[in-house]
Design goal:
3 domains; Aspartate Aminotransferase, domain 1; alpha/beta; homodimer; Aspartate Aminotransferase, domain 2; 433 residues; 12 strands; seven-stranded mixed sheet
Chain lengths: 433, 433
């Protein structure tokens, strides 16, 4: 607690706390005595995906339309069977559910994992969470105490940083780069970052923000490291199905039986079923201590929403065609955006293997300045573009300064306009700066 | 990281990490090398409200019906206007909302607070959360760093303990007792617990688990303490409307303008509208740093559920009669339960002033043993009773050992059966033990 008051306030000199109203009464003005927020709250970063939102709001007020490639909120329809189930809800009052999750949804998720070939996953290995977000936060709390370290690969999903700050866990970055399409470095490069405080390696594959899918070899290298150094290996696989060009995704679920105590898989329904506004995710593990502890955390927050869980439990009725159509659509968008980007002079682009993001190098010094400029000073036919500057996706300072993250979650017609704005915007920006 | 292996494994003696598969290969068996969960996860307690659930499940399997007075999940209907709104949702895909909250719900909450007479509360002073639960966790993170202290009054809402363990905040208890109906002790008793690590006083009024409503005098005593010692004063007011015998509730909102930086009010829609399964709560404050920081936490978890927020935004259309009917119903239940309890020999009971809980002293040595016995060894006409043993609501060891918390959330017919089971159960239990 920091209390500022002039030394002349002799009557307070023996205590470090001041009744501000007394001071006001005696001295006619208010000293700076203010309840202080926590250090950790100060340290939680603004989301790089949303930090330019106020500029976007202002642009909208000025009548400029904005194409949002900054955020992964897809325009793909949610499954009809889920939407229709809303009309069938026949529950009044709307009740708490079991803290582990609604029985129907637990059964549906068991069905889903078993259909993927993981017959050893049963309901009891699943903790349902409020979005993949809660799964991440719960898991960080479960594997690490304040000051403990978790290794991540940068550029990284920026909200990992916020969750880590919330529970005072230190994320230790291992850098990957556009030069090798954000694939992992050699084992020994990762090992350099392992200390006696390291508790886990946290990966995301298919990756947000890079779209990279780690190969079986890369995954097995991580499995070996986790085994050798007795670390948790936590895999965020919320984009599991989003793989292109016939690639397969190597899930950590494949290694769970071999290392039952060490592997934790994080999941979300948001992207798979295009239901971002249903806040549903899951922790999947064979580690009984993690399951028991996660359930105790879950009990404290009582329940995930009943309606969301009821709606999502219809996932067993979603057709295969729903996925194949969506994956084809995303692959076409990816092809379009990569082909178009590669034609813009000075742009550094690769073909992402999965998810629906990519990191792009631009011919600018500061992508943040350029992204802000797009919102404040540029438009084409009354329309401009919102992108996420990449520095917020890196933990190491001064990395990614010329990069942006693009989420190709909009249809081709919108992507075409967006790319045109980007191309002409870059020319105009580089003339002005 | 603890690794156990016999000293004969000489080849490992120079490192403190062991590749378990190598060890197995060389020595034919597996040493105890296991990824360790965090200290904090171990420390998170099981919910006293739900900890006897496995005994209840077993009783149900044995064909015994159970009346649940252990948990505050009311049978009161949700408002029709909310239930009907589910059929009007016309949004596909189901999208993320703004991290602060859905605009319609923010407007509805502003309307609600202004209708209560707090015209200074506008949308920008409200952060919508996933239940009151998330509001509590976010606020603990916002006001305290690991090792910092927050004063609470015991018996307390037990999930405060879990949230505090999750973010490594120390809850320091000030005891209240059934003898004075769980009202607050004198100011100097509270002051004894204030140290230089104290960051906040957290209260709940009307109180869960005691039903006590702090008087204006008590609230003003806390306001003075917060001012004098420069502490946050955090008020969980999720039962604000549940006041009986014409009592008024003194909300901390009344003092917010006087101490804009220090007061944080936590809210929930769960009980007010009997929508526990819609996960919606709020943080309300004039402290801009807390609002900014809460929003950054909220951005990390992206959004609260769209559907829940859409449904709840109809709160402006809920009739006054909905509340007056429900409050009358709860008051009648309270009267019935208190009158009946006072007729049971050896029971220590008072008349709770609000909410829908009370703590009751029973003529037993261990309420936990008695509650377990009710589930495992007693029934009346094929029916038994589940209560929450009170020790889990206390932080100080050995307090509340003969007490239980009762939630009177069921109709009178069920309460009558429940009280009959309790009465006859106590006689039978005290004969056997």
């Amino acid at each position: 607690m920091i209390v500022f008051y002039p030394k002349i306030f002799k009557q307070f000199s023996k205590c470090d706390m001041v009744d501000i109203h007394t001071v006001k009464l005696y001295h006619g003005y208010l000293p700076m005595v203010k309840a202080n927020i926590s250090r950790r709250l100060k340290d939680i970063p603004a989301s790089p995906i949303r930090k330019l939102a106020s500029y976007a709001d202002q642009a909208k007020k000025n009548g400029v339309r904005i194409i949002h490639l900054n955020i992964g909120d897809p325009d793909i329809k949610s499954p009809e069977v889920m939407i229709n189930s809303l009309k069938k809800i026949n529950q009044n009052p709307i009740p708490y559910c079991h803290s582990q999750g609604l029985s129907e949804l637990l059964k549906a998720l068991q069905w889903y994992y078993q259909k993927l070939g993981f017959n050893f996953i049963s309901e009891k290995n699943i903790q349902i969470t409020s979005g993949g977000s809660e799964a991440i936060l719960m898991t960080l709390m479960a594997v690490a105490d304040p000051g403990d370290e978790v290794i991540v690969f940068e550029p990284t999903y920026p909200n990992y940083l916020s969750f880590a700050k919330e529970c005072n866990v230190k994320l230790v970055p291992v850098s990957t780069s556009i030069a090798n399409h954000f694939h992992l470095p050699e084992s020994k490069e990762i090992e350099k970052k392992i200390t006696k405080r390291t508790r886990a390696i946290l990966i995301c594959s298919p990756n947000n923000p890079t779209g990279t899918i780690y190969t079986q070899k890369e995954i097995e290298m991580l499995v070996s490291l986790a085994k050798k150094h007795n670390l948790f290996l936590v895999a965020d696989e919320v984009y599991r199905e989003f793989t292109y060009d016939g690639r397969t995704h190597t899930s950590l679920l494949n290694y769970m039986k071999k290392m039952p105590d060490k592997i934790i898989v994080l999941d979300s329904l948001s992207k798979r079923y295009s239901v971002c506004g249903l806040r549903l995710g899951a922790i999947v593990t064979l580690n009984q201590e993690v399951l028991d502890g996660s359930l105790r955390i879950a009990q404290a927050r009582l329940s995930v929403g009943y309606i969301d869980q009821f709606v999502a439990s219809k996932l067993t009725e979603v057709s295969k065609k729903y996925f194949s159509d969506n994956i084809r659509e995303y692959q076409e968008r990816r092809n379009y955006i990569c082909d178009s980007l590669s034609l813009i002079k000075g742009v550094n682009v690769y073909k992402p293997e999965g998810a629906f993001y990519l990191i792009v190098g631009l011919p600018v010094k500061s992508s943040e300045d350029f992204c802000r400029w797009l919102l404040t000073s540029f438009s084409l036919n009354g329309c401009t573009l919102m992108l996420a500057p990449a520095p917020g996706f890196y933990i190491t300072k001064n990395l990614g300064k010329n990069e942006v993250r693009i989420a190709y979650v909009l249809n081709s017609a919108k992507l075409k306009i967006a790319l045109d704005i980007l191309k002409k915007g870059l020319i105009a920006y580089n003339k002005t700066s």
